[in-house]
Amino acid sequence: MTHPVLIVGSMAFDDLELPSENRKDVVGGSATYASIACSLFAKSQLVAVVGDDFPADTLTQLADRGADVTGIERAKGKTFRWAGRYAADLASRETLDTQLNVFADFQPKLPEGYRDARYVMLGNIHPALQLDVLKQANSPTLVVADTMNFWIEGERDKLGEVLAKLDLLVINDEELRQLAGTYNIKRAARKVRDLGPKRLIVKRGEHGAMLFDQDESVFYAPAFPLLNEVDPTGAGDSFAGALMGKLAAEGEVNSHTLRHALLYGAAVASFCVEGVGTDALAALTENQLEERLVELKRMVYIGD
Amino acid sequence: MTHPVLIVGSMAFDDLELPSENRKDVVGGSATYASIACSLFAKSQLVAVVGDDFPADTLTQLADRGADVTGIERAKGKTFRWAGRYAADLASRETLDTQLNVFADFQPKLPEGYRDARYVMLGNIHPALQLDVLKQANSPTLVVADTMNFWIEGERDKLGEVLAKLDLLVINDEELRQLAGTYNIKRAARKVRDLGPKRLIVKRGEHGAMLFDQDESVFYAPAFPLLNEVDPTGAGDSFAGALMGKLAAEGEVNSHTLRHALLYGAAVASFCVEGVGTDALAALTENQLEERLVELKRMVYIGD
Questions:
Q1: Which strand (E) or helix (H) includes residue B178?
Q2: Nearest residue in B to A187, CA atom
Q3: How many other CB atoms are there within 10 angstroms of residue B139's CB atom?
């Protein structure tokens, strides 16, 4: 039996200025993307907060995909909102506005049924909240977290406490360099693993993702080169959600299952980028996913 | 019998400002790096020009590695000189000075014994000179070229004539984007292949290299993550030289041999970066190379 993945993170409205179009009120947030991606492989248990303006339909749709949404608190006020503008090449983005709203007072509470979760994904929220979640979880098999520059700069101590408890840190390359205080990726990975995480996955956008494993080995999963990139929002969260879902479905975390999970993460993330918000991700079929996985494997196939 | 690789390119003195040290009068140039890298697999035939200040020892050392140096013209005057300063992270560099010297009047002449060359590497020189070389070659099996922003901007027509004659273009990602006028790598690769080259290899520095093959397939060779990067000068030329040497040694150019050659190129380039100038490249042993190749293969090994 596949265990569900406990996912803590944000649920949000995003206002997106994309090269192709502008879209307002796009449902997003790290927990949303991760849960949809995870649902391709395993059920999820969501912990998040939304305001009274958040569409009930979206929660129903997540539940239809196998997400337990009883851990999503509906608070009085407005849902977290992020507005951003992407560069023409989609390689960088600028935050235009952040309104924390109900997210400002978020106190994650695990429903009783969540406390035995084996697979725990701590999305990019305040490290103090990530710690609160871990205190409420009984004995997870795999604790994975994401973080960002904001916490690396401002909440170093709390973040250090989180790092000490992690089996796996998933982080992008710029944040890895910032956290380690060194540019060289291999040395930075070594430094950060010394802070706690047994394993480290470095997300490198269009350049793929690298796993720095506990046996010091390095695995490289390429990104799928897309002809039409539309919106990278949520690609990293989709990557992490798919990774967790695949690991939960495998029921075992080792170098072998991790390598496969990374490829699935890369494949799912590539679909995410092909549509605005969760559009393409939500429309993804199992056949399409398996086809892309074959293509990714071919991309690194060497032969004898 | 392995055919030699005809290599046309620059031979130079480089003044390097590196994060680790400053070094003047470092023997470099695209032909030098490519020839040393090629020598790990195959002999080379060099076409280049040096001034009367160029050390005879260097030519003897190249010859000792199996390079035919009779095509190197020794002209009156000074050797081509490049001075550059690398950023602390080695990810970018700034040209401080370029003195073409004898390179300004370079007219590549193929000695009689070079004209039947099967494997031709046109290093990054003026496209008109690349064309001159091709006119002197009888019927090469594989014509490969490199180019740079300078020619893409200023010599578009001549460069177009070169592209039309290429089996394989080796180019870095920024230059690919510039040549295609589009940021998306896959679309840019398609556009550039429409200009002539049957195949395209995109060098992406620390992110590895991608092969866009004639059957539309994509192969990805990772870069080896180094703990100590010293000097990236010549890494791209070493990559190309090793690639050509390996293909010549295989005696056949197909998707299979190309994939292997790319990995060898990546491995050899990684050694190049570990020393100043050609230091680490020249000291590389066959055992070290094979070890690194095993590590590169492990980096993309997925299993069943």
A1: helix B173-180
A2: B227
A3: 8
Asked whether residue A304 is assigned to any structural domain, the reply reads: no
Q: Is B61 helix (H, G, I), strand (E, B) or coil?
A: helix
pLDDT tens sequence across A265-303: 999 999 999 999 999 999 999 999 999 999 999 999 998
Q: Which range marks the domain in which residue B19 is found?
A: 5-299
Distance CA B232, CA A78 (A): 51
Smallest Cα–Cα separation from B245: which of B1, B79, B17, B4? B4
CATH number for A123: 3.40.1190.20
Query: CB of B143 within 8 A of CB of B114?
Result: no
- Could you give the number of structural domains in chain A? 1
What band does B238 get if pLDDT is binned at 50, 70 and 90?
very high
> Which two three-digit tokens encode residue A56?
């009930």
Tell me, what amino acid is at A50? Answer: V
CA dihedral over B270, B268, B50, B105, signed as positive or negative: negative
Residue to test with chain A: of B182, B218, B252, most A Cβ within 10 A? B218
Residue contact A300–B303, C-beta within 8 A: no
Is residue B13 domain-resident? Answer: yes
Q: pTM for this one?
A: 0.95
Does the structure show a pLDDT above 80 at B304?
no
Question: Which tens digit of pLDDT belongs to each residue from B16-73?
Answer: 999 999 999 999 999 999 999 999 999 999 999 999 999 999 999 999 999 999 999 9
Residue B304, in any domain of the structure:
no
Angle between helices B127-136 and B156-164 (to 10 degrees): 30
Helices (H), chain A: 30-38, 56-64, 127-136, 149-154, 156-164, 173-180, 185-194, 235-250, 255-273, 279-283, 286-299
Q: Could B302 and A259 be called an inter-chain contact, meaning their C-beta atoms sit closer than 8 Å? A: yes
* DSSP annotation of B103: G
Name the minimum distance, in Å, from the CA of B281 to any CA of chain A: 21
User: What are the strands, taking DSSP E only, across chain B?
Assistant: 5-8, 12-17, 22-28, 44-50, 67-68, 72-74, 80-86, 93-99, 119-122, 142-146, 168-172, 199-203, 209-212, 218-221
- Which of the four pLDDT bands, split at 50, 70 and 90, describes residue A1? confident
CB contact under 8 A, B297 and A301: no
Beta bridge mates, A219 = A211
To the nearest whole Å, the CA of A60 is away from the closest chain B CA by 36
